[in-house]
Amino acid sequence: MPQQHDEILAHNIRWNNINGVLNTLSQNMLSPFTGIFAIKLGASDGLIAALSSWPALVSLVTMIPGARHVDRYPRQKRLVTILALLNRLVFLLVALLPVLVRDPKQRPIVFVSMIALANVPGALANVAWQSFMGKVIPPAQRGMAFAKRNQLMSLCGIGASLLAGWIMDRLAFPIGFQIMFFVGFLLALLEIAALYQTIEPETSNSRPIKTSRFAFSWEALVAGIRSHKGYWLFASASLLFHLGWQMGWPLYTKYQVQVLGASTTWVSLFGVCQSISSVVAYPIWAKLADRYGNQRMLSFSTMGMAVTPLLYVICTRLWMLALLCLVIGVSVAGTVLLLLNTLLEICPEEARTEYIAYHNTATNATAVVAPYIGIFLSTASGIRWALVITAFARGLGAAALALVYRLGQGRATQRS
Q1: Are 27 and 185 in contact (CB under 8 A)?
Q2: Which one, of 2, 284, 1, 303, lies nearest residue 143 by Cα?
């Protein structure tokens, strides 16, 4: 029986890695280029900010109500794949945008709206996938398993992003973008097929539960806060950090394209440099987390991200920014890996989907306003000062995460 369990775990980790590789190949056909595509379509500063804000707003209003329905199904694999497929249809719709919308003036807002609406199934797919992976991969193997997945994703994304940007620059706009977006859709279909190969753990009942396993009410929320203080302290600190993190999203695009004049190829190269350092960093962060703990190492990785906007300010050449992306990749790798591991570790197991939804909803709430704050600061004080303020906001969030870790250590010492 233990041998069979080990074989199933190895099978799931292998297909989880394949799914991750196909996911990054697919996403690298679209995600790195949404900002520059919007700018080429003629999007205003407000729409550039909306490219980050509107998807978060959609997630905000769908996450918790949707999570209630997600958690009704103890057998979640089919649900995750259906939601992922609905989300990935945006690749096809964006590829057909010049055909579907004849008026060039309307294309920017339609494009941003497509990206936002895709987050209705996308947000639910993300919550469902995180909860699903919490059941599929045990905590003892989770750190190295996700580190390996993320490492392979970064490694495979290097060539994909660079090739996509090179092709886009050499074909007339928007033909190059349309071709890459369509290729991304085909890769997304393979990604979903790989996800479906995962063997879901057996449960006592595979039929949908007619009543929710938890109630989304103020009474339940207050009771949850009292019984899971560690989670709520972490979620609050994470919320503060995400506010600063998300403020920088539109600023980076503006700085790259409008200040330094980056082409699509250069934008791809920035992604490649970040991926190269991430490939090296993921297993290192995983080993450090196994030795010192996820939360402790998360404090260091987020502090590294706080320094990033300050380093952006001193980059006056594109090649300097490419070198900076090598540094950025290290802290981003640690933050992405350790945030997920910490969240899965700290969520109450009996209501994991509920508490993941609370956290993701809160961070999507900040993502609604944070990009606009970044754009406002850029307009009011200039983009360089906006980046400095963003660095300060991220630093406060990183310090809060470090404080939560220290408080948790203090409580553990008192109990022992």
Answers
A1: no
A2: 284
How far apart are the C-alpha atoms of 271 and 279, rounded to whole Å? 12
3-state secondary structure of 404: helix
Tens-digit pLDDT profile for residues 175-219: 988 999 999 999 999 999 999 999 887 764 444 444 444 445 566
If one counts the domains in the chain, the total is 1
Q: How many CB atoms lie within 10 A of CB 81?
A: 20
> Would you state the structure tokens that stand for residue 360, as one six-digit string?
């993701």
Q: Give the long-range contacts of residues 311-317, CB within 8 A, separation 24 or more.
A: 312/251, 312/252, 312/255, 312/387, 313/384, 313/387, 313/388, 315/260, 316/260, 317/260
Residue 352 has pLDDT above 80, yes or no: no
The reply to whether 211 falls in a domain is: no
Residue 353: helix, strand or coil by DSSP? helix
pLDDT reading at 331 higher than 90: yes
Amino acid at 85: L
Weakest-pLDDT range from 18-32, 141-155, 180-194: 141-155
**Contact indicator for 212, 71 with CB cutoff of 8 Å:** yes
Within-domain flag for 206: no
Domain, as residue range, for 179: 2-198+216-415
Q: Would you say 397 and 302 are in contact if contact means Cβ atoms under 8 Å apart?
A: yes
Cα 258 from Cα 350, distance rounded (Å): 49
pTM: 0.69
Measured between alpha carbons, how far is 164 from 65 in angstroms, rounded to an integer? 37
Q: Is the pLDDT of residue 29 over 50?
A: yes
Over residues 18-41, mean pLDDT: 89
The residue among 379, 369, 293, 299 whose CA lies nearest residue 331 is 299
Q: CATH number of the domain that 88 lies in?
A: 1.20.1250.20
With 0-12 / 13-18 / 19 or more C-beta atoms within 10 angstroms meaning exposed / middle / buried, residue 114 is: middle
Q: Does 208 fall in a domain? A: no
Instruction: Please report whether residue 266 resides in a domain.
Output: yes
Q: Rounded CA gap, 56 and 61, in Å?
A: 9
Task: Look at residues 248, 247, 245, 267 and name the one whose alpha carbon lies nearest to residue 257.
Answer: 267
Amino acid at 120: V
